[in-house]
Amino acid sequence: MNSFLKELRDAIKFFLEHGYSSEESLIMWTERLRNATEDKVGGDDFYRYVSRRLTAAYDLEVGRERALKRHPGVSRFTLHYLEPKLRAELDRRIMASADLIKLNRTQAVDRTIQRFSGWATSIPPITSISPGLSASSRSGVVTTSQHIAKSARQIDFEQRRVMVDQTHKLIANIDNIIATDGGAIAAVWHSHWRQPNYDYREPHKDRDLKTYAIRGNWALKKGFMKVGPAGYLDEITQPGEEVFCRCYLTYIYNVRSLPDEMKTEKWRKFIEGNKSVGRRSANFETIKNGG
Asked: Cβ(224)–Cβ(266) under 8 Å?
């Protein structure tokens, strides 16, 4: 955005010195502003920028297996087996993110140019007869021009924020694919509300460390678990679904790891039965060996 900012500063300087004297001068400057963005950033540039950022996140989560920390019990073999699905999700997210960033940037530039046009046309022409702005009016106009320039500088910042958000969405979708194919039975919500200066959502803070059942899982079907106080995972918004949400889930794949209130009596009897079989087998081995 450096070329755009330079053109914007030059345009502001021009109208502060000459005022708005003709439509032709305004058209010339707005065209120069638009060309400063279009010449520097094309569709391929957005795609390469997004691809580089998201692929780096993907390599960390899948290639270096960091995702497995949120999926205790899932093997490396399972993660590698799912790579075609995970890679397809990466490709889909790259295309969607590139389109979103390009759209947001175009809209932000359009808003800045629109504000500039409104500001420029409010300045009377400066001629030998008309002195243009009075001293009192000039300070207000200069302040407005500074706000316009500041909003232009925010465009790159907003692009980086969107990229961070899209990265979290990619990671959340990777987790969802692993959990679905891996047979997760529940998930524990984790919020960053304890992090200083983090702008958390109150509902997300309330979900922190609560365990949500995954609807239709094998443990529910066998009657080994029941839905806990938090309810089903599909009844709430998912991590990364809302804008700039950085929450995440850790997944549970076995009944033993569930909170006690989510284990059923059938499960407890099943475990006790297995213990009894184990004790009988141990006694049999002792007798067989002359113990």
From this structure: yes
AA identity, residue 286:
T
Which long-range contacts (C-beta less than 8 Å, at least 24 apart) are formed by 56-64?
A: 57/167, 57/170, 57/171, 58/86, 58/87, 58/90, 58/170, 58/174, 61/171, 61/174, 62/86, 62/174
Phi, psi angles (nearest 5°) of residue 237: -65, 145
Contact present, 10 and 18 (Cβ < 8 Å): no
> Which tens digit of pLDDT belongs to each residue from 38-97?
655 555 678 899 999 999 999 999 999 999 999 999 999 999 999 999 999 999 999 999
The span from the first CA to the last CA of the chain, in angstroms, equals 83
Task: Encode 5-38 in three state secondary structure.
Answer: HHHHHHHHHHHHHHCCCCHHHHHHHHHHHHHHHH
Half-sphere exposure in the Cβ direction for 179 (13 Å, CA) = 25
CB 217 within 8 A of CB 158: no
Determine the Cα–Cα distance for residues 122 and 153; give it in Å rounded to an integer: 23
243 DSSP assignment: T
Provide the pLDDT for residue 278: 53
CB neighbourhood size of 142 (10 A): 12
Q: Extract the tokens encoding 232.
A: 């089903």
User: At 244, which amino acid appears?
Assistant: F
| Its pTM surpasses 0.90 | no
Can you tell me the distance from the alpha carbon of 179 to that of 34, in angstroms, rounded to the nearest whole number? 46
Query: d(Cα 46, Cα 106) in Å, to the nearest integer?
Result: 12
